[in-house]
């Protein structure tokens, strides 16, 4: 069977359509498909008449013989049937271009007529097919074609040379299909709405429960699912497994699960993923727009204001393109009359409409009601997609609204039919066609309101349950579905199996079976349930003398409040050992009459706790510097020293330590801002399922970590507003808001350029730029290795930088990648080589990246959910820990000292003044204290 242009056109849309046409199957009928065929025929006749009028006597009205083409003298021929051994095509027209010289044959250009204003790749491939047939008839390649299209009969010249290869591949696939005799796999696609075989194919797909019934599934995804042996929607529904998302992906949008859509269809229940929110603060305005996409013309704006019986419908109609601006202004005027309007639409068509109207006809006045409404529209489809799965085969408004029980007055309503109705109205100007369009548009607005209220109902707990046909809708949250684990839970419809499985568990057998049959296991069980050990014996009693003055104001007049004694549980940290220490402290509490402060509690106690500073220091040392989870720290100390620390006690140690050292962190941050060099970087942290940001500020001596909810530049501006040194950072644009000299990290730049070269290995212009940069940077790095970061030695490279930029400015690059690279160098011209002008300024941001690794290591071991308060507490202590490392101070020794000033501790740690002999407490043995 020969391949015709009609079959080729069908194959481009769908192989099944091509097969059905080739076998002469009767079409079930499609109003839009019939209308398109009529439009094609009418447009072709009109176009031929126009060409005949223009060409005059140089046109061949009677189809010429293909054998006489080489000797033809006509300029234009229409309706030419050509055939080869395998192909046949009835060309709409052929244009003959006379020979340009001796030995050069005349050129023949196939012409095709398309009534749409916008062309697709399929239209160009059809011209390529005509050229392919014509080239075989002529015996030489046809390199050009022409398409006359649209209302203005615009002519587009098509270079078919690059399309002949794809056209030949398609004809090869068609030949295999038509020669095989068996139909291809039935697949529903987007063309089904315009196909005359739509109803028959859909009925077969429903009978087979075919995967292509699910809208939005690509051919690649469908093939991947079929390779697993899954061929029906029902089979696919059993493959959904709810999984907990990693923390790093909780702020990202959930991907669409076709298996969950299939599950919703099978169970006829709404399934919700995550926690989608639909906030309607104001008066809802449901928007639906009708237009002609191939003309970019919007002729009907539908607005439904409010809900229920009090809703008001507006239909703004444009007769011609000249009326488009008028209905746009009417639309804005209506929005101004609505109190706090909120525009709600379905899909991206209305988004494109709003953007296009503002560009063509101007937007509303800033701060007006319409301006705010257009700037904060709600696309209901974006909320539903991947988050709300209705038990419908697609996410189309028609399907979801129909499932809610809404019916359109037209049978099988679709956007394609509106194109047909509008074209019919333009020819007849009948009120019936206009009424049909406005009713359809108003019903779309009403359907959108119903779906919105339904979604709002089951997403908001304060709303009453959503009803459909008098029954409450069943809603399932996927987070509550049972998750698959390594050891899945056993379930059986046979109750006896459930009981047998229950008594077969290991812990049940250990506690109820083995303990009865084994004396050894019985002894172990008794030992495990033994009572807690008694409190350890107090080794010493320390009596604290009366202080000479108030420690805060140095006033000698103070009042005695009460005598007290407390037992201190601490760890004695020796040079090579750790041991537990239990000491009773006896002291008096006083009240200062001048500053009204209470004092007298020994410094050995951690505030509001029975533990000592050494134990607190040890806990923080394990958790922060050694990156051991607090749960393991507690278990280890309890097992080795019998401390009986609870989880809340360990948590309170961390909280109070953060409060104690907050001023120390602020002091570090102040020194950083007052310095001459500052490195800055940031990283993500998941805080209650949302993304937060941890910023690090460092130089060669201090490190400070700060938490922020967002990555915006506001934090940088507030913290570094007074910084006047050199800021070293990566290429994040927020750092541009800091008013100071800046040095961008050249390691980041080098890696980005290297990735560009790997992505474009044959782009010679890009490679030339990157190579020149590498040759410029390499001598600078060598100088740093030999001489250090000294301006005196690095200044010699400045002329080479200027020469690099002069050469870059002179060249005009054709490559897109090369132009991007050039623009990046131009944008950061004054920030790439700042280190050549200063002493001690590095050319990379390794200091900040090294500091951020400390938080990354801590982040990976902290258990539980991060909260903003918990993040800030960890960052305060981590700032102290890292600054101690940079200052050459032992973190554990600093914590044990009780100091708050790291710099003072670093200077005086070997010569701290000791307390006077008169103020030293008296130490007694346990027996002496008891006698006393």
**Ends: how far apart?**
118 Å
Mean pLDDT: 85
Could you name the CATH class of the domain at 284-468? Alpha Beta
Strand content: 15-25%
Globally, the shape reads: globular
Do you know the CATH architecture of the domain at 284-468? 2-Layer Sandwich
Low-pLDDT runs of 5+ residues are: 461-471, 910-920, 922-932
* Structural class designation: alpha/beta
Q: Could you say what the CATH topology of the domain at 284-468 is called?
A: Nucleotidyltransferase, domain 5
How many strands, what sense, and barrel or not for the largest sheet? 7 strands, mixed
| Total E-strand runs | 27
Summed up, the helix count is: 34
Radius of gyration from CA coordinates: 40 Å
Give the helix proportion (percent range): 40-55%
Q: What oligomeric state do these chains adopt?
A: single chain
């Amino acid at each position: 069977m020969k391949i015709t242009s009609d079959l080729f056109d069908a194959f481009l849309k769908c192989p099944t359509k091509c097969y059905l046409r080739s076998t002469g199957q009767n079409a079930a009928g499609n109003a839009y498909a019939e209308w398109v065929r009529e439009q094609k025929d009418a447009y072709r006749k009109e176009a031929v008449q126009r060409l005949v009028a223009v060409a005059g006597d140089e046109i061949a009205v009677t189809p010429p013989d293909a054998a006489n083409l080489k000797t033809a003298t006509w300029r234009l021929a229409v309706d030419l049937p050509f055939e080869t051994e395998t192909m046949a095509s009835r060309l709409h027209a052929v244009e003959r271009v006379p020979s340009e010289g001796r030995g050069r044959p005349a050129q023949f250009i196939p012409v095709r007529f398309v009534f749409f204003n916008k062309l697709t790749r399929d239209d160009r491939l059809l011209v390529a097919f005509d050229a392919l047939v014509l080239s075989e008839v002529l015996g030489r390649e046809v390199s050009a074609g022409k398409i006359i299209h649209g209302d203005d009969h615009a002519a587009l010249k098509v270079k078919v040379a690059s399309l002949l290869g794809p056209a030949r591949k398609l004809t090869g696939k068609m030949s295999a299909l038509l020669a095989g005799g068996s139909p291809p796999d039935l697949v529903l696609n987007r063309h089904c709405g315009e196909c005359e075989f739509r109803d028959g194919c859909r009925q077969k797909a429903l009978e087979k429960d075919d995967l292509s019934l699910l809208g939005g599934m690509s051919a690649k995804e469908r093939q991947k699912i079929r390779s697993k042996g899954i061929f029906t929607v029902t089979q696919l529904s059993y493959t959904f497994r709810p999984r907990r998302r990693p923390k790093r992906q909780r702020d990202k949008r959930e991907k669409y699960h076709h298996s969950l859509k299939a599950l919703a269809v099978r169970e006829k229940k709404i399934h919700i993923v995550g926690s989608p929110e639909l906030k309607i603060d104001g008066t809802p305005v449901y928007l639906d727009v009708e237009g002609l996409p191939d003309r970019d013309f919007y002729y009907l704006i539908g607005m439904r204001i409010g809900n229920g019986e009090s809703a008001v419908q507006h239909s703004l109609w444009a007769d011609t393109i000249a009326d488009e601006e008028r209905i746009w202004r009417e639309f804005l005027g209506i929005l101004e009359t609505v109190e706090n309007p909120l525009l709600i639409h379905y899909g991206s068509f209305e988004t494109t409409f709003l953007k296009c109207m503002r560009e063509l006809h101007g937007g509303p006045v800033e701060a007006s009601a319409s301006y705010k409404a257009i700037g904060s529209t709600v696309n209901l489809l974006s909320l539903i997609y991947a988050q709300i799965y209705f038990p419908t085969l697609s996410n189309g408004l028609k399907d979801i609204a129909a499932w809610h029980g809404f019916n359109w007055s037209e049978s099988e309503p679709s956007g394609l039919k509106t194109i047909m109705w509008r074209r019919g109205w333009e020819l007849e100007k009948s009120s019936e066609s206009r009424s049909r369009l406005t009713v359809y548009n108003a019903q779309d607005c009403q359907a959108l309101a119903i779906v919105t209220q339904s979604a709002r109902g089951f997403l908001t707990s304060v709303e009453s349950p959503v009803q459909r046909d008098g029954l409450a809708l069943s809603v399932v949250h996927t987070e509550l579905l049972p998750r698959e684990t390594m050891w899945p839970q056993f379930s059986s419809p046979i109750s006896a199996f459930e009981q047998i499985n229950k008594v077969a568990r290991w812990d049940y057998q250990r506690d109820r079976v083995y303990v009865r049959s084994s004396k050894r296991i019985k002894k172990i069980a008794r030992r495990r349930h033994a009572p807690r050990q008694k409190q350890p014996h107090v080794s010493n009693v320390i009596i604290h003398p009366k202080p000479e003055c108030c420690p805060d104001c140095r006033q000698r007049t103070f009042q005695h409040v009460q005598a007290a004694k407390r037992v201190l549980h601490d760890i004695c940290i020796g040079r090579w050992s750790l041991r537990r220490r239990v000491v009773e402290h006896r002291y008096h509490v006083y009240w200062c009459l001048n500053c009204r402060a209470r004092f007298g509690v020994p410094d050995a106690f951690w505030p509001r706790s029975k533990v000592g500073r050494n134990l607190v220091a040890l806990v923080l040392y394990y958790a922060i510097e050694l990156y051991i989870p607090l749960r393991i720290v507690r278990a280890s100390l309890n097992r080795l020293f019998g401390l009986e620390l609870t989880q809340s006690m360990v948590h309170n140690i961390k909280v109070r330590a953060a409060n104690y050292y907050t001023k120390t962190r602020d002091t570090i941050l102040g020194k950083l801002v007052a310095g001459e060099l500052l490195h800055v970087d940031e990283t993500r942290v998941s805080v209650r399922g949302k993304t937060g940001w941890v910023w690090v500020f460092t130089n060669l001596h201090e490190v400070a970590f700060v938490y922020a909810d967002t990555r915006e530049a506001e934090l940088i501006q507030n913290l570094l507003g007074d910084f006047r040194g050199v800021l070293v950072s990566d290429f994040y644009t927020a750092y541009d808001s800091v008013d100071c000299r800046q040095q961008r990290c050249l390691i980041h730049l080098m890696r980005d350029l290297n990735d560009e070269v790997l992505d474009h290995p044959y782009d010679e212009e890009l490679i030339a730029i990157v190579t020149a940069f590498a040759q410029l940077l390499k001598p600078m790095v060598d100088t740093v290795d030999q001489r250090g970061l000294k301006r005196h030695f690095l200044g010699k490279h400045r002329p080479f930088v200027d020469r690099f930029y002069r050469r870059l400015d002179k060249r005009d690059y054709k490559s897109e990648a090369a132009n991007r690279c050039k623009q990046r160098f131009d944008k950061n011209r004054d920030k790439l080589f700042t280190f050549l002008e200063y002493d001690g300024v590095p050319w990379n941001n390794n200091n900040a990246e090294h500091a951020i690794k400390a938080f990354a290591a801590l982040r990976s071991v902290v258990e539980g959910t991060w909260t903003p308060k918990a993040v800030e507490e960890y960052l305060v202590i981590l700032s102290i820990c890292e600054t101690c490392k940079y200052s050459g101070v032992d973190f554990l020794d600093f914590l044990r000292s009780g100091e708050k000033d790291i710099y003072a501790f670093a200077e005086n740690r070997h010569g701290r003044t000791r307390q006077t002999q008169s103020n030293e407490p008296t130490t007694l043995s346990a027996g002496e204290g008891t006698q006393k």
